[in-house]
What we know:
By secondary structure, chain A is of the alpha+beta class.
Amino acid sequence: PLPPGDTSVLAGLYGPAEAKVSKELPDRAALEVLLRPKVGLPGVMERSREQLLRQTCEAVVLGVLHPRTAITLVLQVLSDAGSLLSCCLNAACMALLDAGLPLTTLFCGVTCALQPDGTILLDPTARQEQEARAILTFAIARSERKVLMANTKGSCSVEEMQQCLAAAQRAADTIFQFYRDSVRRRYSKS
Amino acid sequence: QVWQIRLDMHLLNHDGNITDAASIAGIVALCHFRRPDVSVQGEEVTVYTPEERDPVPLSIHHMPICVSFAFFHQGTYLLVDPTEREERVMDGLLVIAMNKHHEICTIQSSGVVMLVQDQILRCSKITAVKVAEITELIQKALENDQKARKEGGKFGFAESIPNQRITAFKMESAAVDTNDVEEQAGEIIAKADPPAEVFANPVLHTPGTAQIGEGIESSWGDLEESEKEEAAEEEGDTEAAAFECEKVETEDTSTMRGTKNDEPIVLSDSEEEEVVILEPQELPRKTR
């Protein structure tokens, strides 16, 4: 058995820049997300993930401050060893943060895998994801740990979903601490 | 039957001379790649999965590496491996692809500069030196990776991201305290409203079309009613027609309400007079 690799996603954010007339919105910024897989051309899976990410980002970005502009977020998957969607969410938030875009709140992505016997695994590896009964990904905002996005694959009961959500909210604290440390480190030395 | 090989290159950062970088990345990827093992006996071809038999590398005869030269001022100045700024202002570009056996694989010249023979010879000598260095680096990297895989160490792209730079920050997997998660979840559920009643029994109109739950009550009956009323007024018919229509409507909805908790039923009556339901791969049949 191979040792677990790391999931890594490279995010590049461009904007607010001038938008094409066909794409500009009169009262807010138009946010576009492009997700490029590691192998092959983007397919349907990538398109649906792009929409998920776009709607999550639109909920936090203060687009009304930059009307008629375009904000483009490009995500390149470098390696996939499980929990890819939450990795994309985290990369997206850090890109928004690093670019200095006005945000209402930070957010992070956490994946929970529900195993057949009912135990909850946070940030599952690819192998754990395959064996799980259900995989739930949540985007959790920093303010009051509210849920911005929930994505489920598989079936689970309402109680189990609430348990996964509560576990994810706990894990979110660790991730937000990581954001703070990264930003502090980046801007401490010139 | 042949193998088809696909090489995807993702450009992460462009700071000049992507040709060279892409050529190195491409040839290393091809050397690193392992394809599934195959055995051919006469007409029978068996392809083994990576679990059954170790995958085999491709047969790479030699490793051509590109080296680019930028010319300025009509060939007076020569820069090897130009950066993005230099590329923007250069007059001409010369790309030489060579392998470590000093065989030139490709020469490309572009731009507005005319090159003399000894300039090109000088460039090819520089190329030979660079290619020797780069090929050695590649061999070392491939060996390190093979060793890491055999000994069970960590490998892959994430490991090669330099850890000591300010812009990279790694965190070891952190433990999360989830002890009283269940209690918290239980509280949330107790306070929340009960979820809407779930209709587990879909109503089958015919094989292929099903209805879950009740849709909004169709208002087509009203239309028919009002139309008929108008028609009645215009044509002077009695109101009997309108009443009939209404009765039929209530009958239908009551049958629906009465049977929704039963086994999936097949609705054989509907409000429209003629309903054509298209069956998959069957001729359309009419139901009343």
